[in-house]
Amino acid sequence: MRIWVINPNTTQAMTDTIAKCAATVAGPDVIVSGVTSEIGPESIESHYDEALSVPGVLRAVQRGEREGVDGYVIACFGDPGLDAAREVAAGPVIGIAEAAMQAASHLGTGFSIVTTLARTIGQSAHLTERYGMQRFCRGIHACEIPVLDLDTDPNARKVITEACREAIEADHSDAVVLGCAGMADMCGEISAELGVPVVDGVTAATLTVQSLLTMGLRTSKRGEYATPPVKRYLPGVAPAG
Amino acid sequence: MRIWVINPNTTQAMTDTIAKCAATVAGPDVIVSGVTSEIGPESIESHYDEALSVPGVLRAVQRGEREGVDGYVIACFGDPGLDAAREVAAGPVIGIAEAAMQAASHLGTGFSIVTTLARTIGQSAHLTERYGMQRFCRGIHACEIPVLDLDTDPNARKVITEACREAIEADHSDAVVLGCAGMADMCGEISAELGVPVVDGVTAATLTVQSLLTMGLRTSKRGEYATPPVKRYLPGVAPAG
Amino acid sequence: MRIWVINPNTTQAMTDTIAKCAATVAGPDVIVSGVTSEIGPESIESHYDEALSVPGVLRAVQRGEREGVDGYVIACFGDPGLDAAREVAAGPVIGIAEAAMQAASHLGTGFSIVTTLARTIGQSAHLTERYGMQRFCRGIHACEIPVLDLDTDPNARKVITEACREAIEADHSDAVVLGCAGMADMCGEISAELGVPVVDGVTAATLTVQSLLTMGLRTSKRGEYATPPVKRYLPGVAPAG
Amino acid sequence: MRIWVINPNTTQAMTDTIAKCAATVAGPDVIVSGVTSEIGPESIESHYDEALSVPGVLRAVQRGEREGVDGYVIACFGDPGLDAAREVAAGPVIGIAEAAMQAASHLGTGFSIVTTLARTIGQSAHLTERYGMQRFCRGIHACEIPVLDLDTDPNARKVITEACREAIEADHSDAVVLGCAGMADMCGEISAELGVPVVDGVTAATLTVQSLLTMGLRTSKRGEYATPPVKRYLPGVAPAG
Amino acid sequence: MRIWVINPNTTQAMTDTIAKCAATVAGPDVIVSGVTSEIGPESIESHYDEALSVPGVLRAVQRGEREGVDGYVIACFGDPGLDAAREVAAGPVIGIAEAAMQAASHLGTGFSIVTTLARTIGQSAHLTERYGMQRFCRGIHACEIPVLDLDTDPNARKVITEACREAIEADHSDAVVLGCAGMADMCGEISAELGVPVVDGVTAATLTVQSLLTMGLRTSKRGEYATPPVKRYLPGVAPAG
Amino acid sequence: MRIWVINPNTTQAMTDTIAKCAATVAGPDVIVSGVTSEIGPESIESHYDEALSVPGVLRAVQRGEREGVDGYVIACFGDPGLDAAREVAAGPVIGIAEAAMQAASHLGTGFSIVTTLARTIGQSAHLTERYGMQRFCRGIHACEIPVLDLDTDPNARKVITEACREAIEADHSDAVVLGCAGMADMCGEISAELGVPVVDGVTAATLTVQSLLTMGLRTSKRGEYATPPVKRYLPGVAPAG
């Protein structure tokens, strides 16, 4: 069973972290590979960044289809390109936001999301609605650490841990969802510190793909996720077919 | 890793089917056991049945806690006693309805539920709301086969398959959720017949428990799911502590 | 006209208070009786307690049906067993939460609920949704007095009154709903103190049952509340029929 | 205890029917009077009619306040002027739509509304939302009999009964709400014919006012329903004070 | 193209301000006239006031129809009589609340409303729901300046500007909607001061009417806004026909 | 005042039609230009197509910003790239779906959308939710004519007109929204045929941009639509700054 964890930004170091986290949880018969997007922004912190990350995500999925990959994780908390990727892929495609929120919905009656920059809160809120998770999400909070500083800022973990602590107090939450793939390796530590479950979407999404594949479930091609019609594209973008 | 799949009704044959399905998908390091409720109704087809099945579910979870069980599946599509079981258990407790609906939400943009008797449609509808799955569920349909006839009625599979076919047509759905634990072993066949993903909650819930345990996630004891206060109970019901 | 006010916990003193309040408002041709549950917890402060109170509620309704009772009040703010009781009873069955919230919805544009322990807030919130009262309910607040201390704690009334005052300020509410049957006799006093309507569910539910009976309205047996199918139950629980 | 049942249209015959129905259910210590609006339309079948009926309703309430009336029913299914009347009155004011829908919400899990002309369906739908009753209302249907023909058309009862029958079939409902005060006296007959509860708002609202008064509950003057500020009005409309 | 901007209260000075603002934005081929209601309250600050303003609005629209007016603005933030006016008018009728909120929905992801008295907040909230704008409206705030003091109170602009500043901070909004026609001429100043878009409904509604007329769009007479049936009205109110 | 109407697909003939419609309604002081996307698909009929059209839309807006364009219309009914374009542009950016639905919301109480292929219905449904227009949209229907055949298929108008007729019957709607920019020039004809308002988004959006500019309203740069942070992009995509 082969699963690709696609990093929608172009920063290889982040892919490495993500892939390592994903591999830790995957079953013995699963080969997890991290894939870095080849086009687009080095990090995703705006609608503009997100929009421009999607062609790279789709190109990665198309390559995966040619290579016989069984399922995909889109490892950015905005779940960029999810619908389009499902049209292109035969197997399951899971975003880390949907997987993390669904996992958290089983652990308590309300969770808080702690994300990077405040300007991305709107997109997280949109996703809580899209996935029906509004009723579980009690608040979305920013730690105001840019994505690419998560790894290099020596205070990052402490700042994020404090943001999580304040979030569960303010929201009367009983769990936390980390709102960025770049935080994937912080879960255990923050959870130990705060005494509540802390969910990372990279591992959650990897296990969701693995579970769907184990059950023999693939993307439905009957309706909206049918393979897109082949057509002419202006330079540089390959057709889906 | 030990997971108990609790059958909330008292029919052992149904437990056997359920346990077999669950074991098929569980990972190599997971021991899955089917547990039949010791008190309550032989099948669950009304609010009355469901209410009276809950003490048996809770008694099973309490026994599991004493025996060091890691997580639980409640294997009836009404997810009876889910909140109370989460208060009692330290590890994750997952209902088959929530797991099945969440799985289906990844495979298309809208699913249909096919359940047993029409009088249970209301409870399924209630659960779609509770889990935020209303936006994915396009219809709930009854095949009007009583739970205990699923195994014995020679036409059951055919009737259910036709009900699924009609449901996806009527609802413009692209996936099906089977609305009874007793249908757990019919997924593959119906899916092959209809060409759309068909989701069974028993396997979905088992893998959800396994995934949460793999990620080290347990029920939050900070809020509503904290251990219930110990108190005096009148005859026959053991306290939670 | 005979109405039973069922106390879902096993504490007789609480039944006495409830029955007295109910009798105060009932019409001259109405016989109101308080009935204490014979099995289950001494008070209801968790999902676990609530789940284990339901069999006792249903047993009481079944006894009432045999004795020709016309209608029932379930006198615990979680409205435990409401759906199942409606399946069993021919006449109307009303929970105190639904009755209190509906009454309050006529008196202003938004009410606050003041309940006992914070861990029960979730269940009250669930009921506001179930009854369509979310749009009227502006907040749910706990006074953190356990149910059985309501009667004995000399400061209870004062603490609850202050909780009500803070609730209407914080929520910009114009009415209060008391979130526990054990507070039934405090309405008048708190309302006089705060200058806003304060609603108790026990009296509200008793009058709702009385009103429905006066109009000749009984539980519909056409749909989801039809009498449950008779079936085999393991020890100690009588069938519904 | 004095309750005025205000007919918002100017047709005395309709007031007579309404008042008779209300009196049938009121308690022995309650004096129910029918009051016909003195200005406005002879029947209410459009937003225009409804808007122009409101000044007459308010004038009636103002007269009632001067005469010491305890509570009011607004006896038109559009509940015209409800908010404004609550600002003017000290005691409770109840619309027949809200009372009927709340009553029906206790009797089953979903009701159908059967009203007069199709062009009023929108207003009924608006009220189901306003009162939080959308989740109980499964459909709104018109019998296309004008309000003033309800009494004179010899086929009216039969046509309405058939409309009710079709509604519960089409909507899978288990109760019916009659959507016009002019249908108040048809409940029993239709219910007997169809075997489901049929709710009339006039009796329901009268009993709701009576119940609120019995509990000592009056309109909150703390918030949005505070007495309106006195001000200058151009000819013919008396100030509220 | 002739557009009437109807002031639903009877204060001519306010009509003058409103008409001036409307004229500023209207296209070269548009004749905008301010029309003062001839009956009703001098200002609208309660449900009572609003209810009694509606007959004057409808009378103005009826006069406009006789004079061949093409479209109407209802220039009070409660949008009084909107549905009824649409039944009466052939051309478009737009309320300033709906127009302002729709305009603001294009400029950011969430706006705050700043209105006059706190007691009108409920009506604004109702309108955000009616128009589907709840998801854009992050808060409604009162400056507690009565409508008729907006023009005369020398501190009005400063107080309102501060209320807007506090609103966008508290609500994390990125735009402001002014919640009273009497604030129509303050937009530019407040926007310049705060650095966010500030929307006035009078200009927004005037341009919405003008745009609809430019596109040849008029009120649909197929459904709920069909011309109301002619009927007998008691003294002083002319029939619609 | 300069407005660019951006065609997100690469088909120049479609741009020509769109630009012509837009120019017809624009005011005398407005210069409207049609702009064809330089990269991406020739038509947009899937999530995949839509995702790949966004970079071209953003590139067009960036060019417009350099040339001092005042506002933009995104002329595809999926409103592709709207959030990102608002981050990039200083002036207003309007999608044709939002403009059309808002216009239709003024003309009746419920509209139907008639679009091209059934597989795009999901995206239209998503937009009705995003814009708060779900309460006005009663149905979304496909005519199953591919986008590029709208111009060439001799039966297109007839087929679409019939689809509109069936939609308003089935949905009990009183207005129609055309769900594709390629239908922009069919409004008048279909409206004349069916006797209900038919709204095209291209003209509606052009007039919305014009109206916002006339009021001096521009995209708020305070919150989510602030200029995106400058960062490194891999080949071929220019940074936003």
From TrEMBL, chains A, B, C, D, E, F:
Domain of life of the native organism? Bacteria
Instruction: Give the matching Pfam families.
Output: Asp_Glu_race
Q: Which InterPro entries match?
A: Asp/Glu/hydantoin_racemase, Hydantoin_racemase-like, Iso_Racemase_Enz_sf
The Swiss-Prot or TrEMBL record describes its family as follows: Belongs to the HyuE racemase family.
Q: What is this protein called?
A: Asp/Glu racemase
Q: Which species expresses this protein natively?
A: Mycolicibacterium sphagni
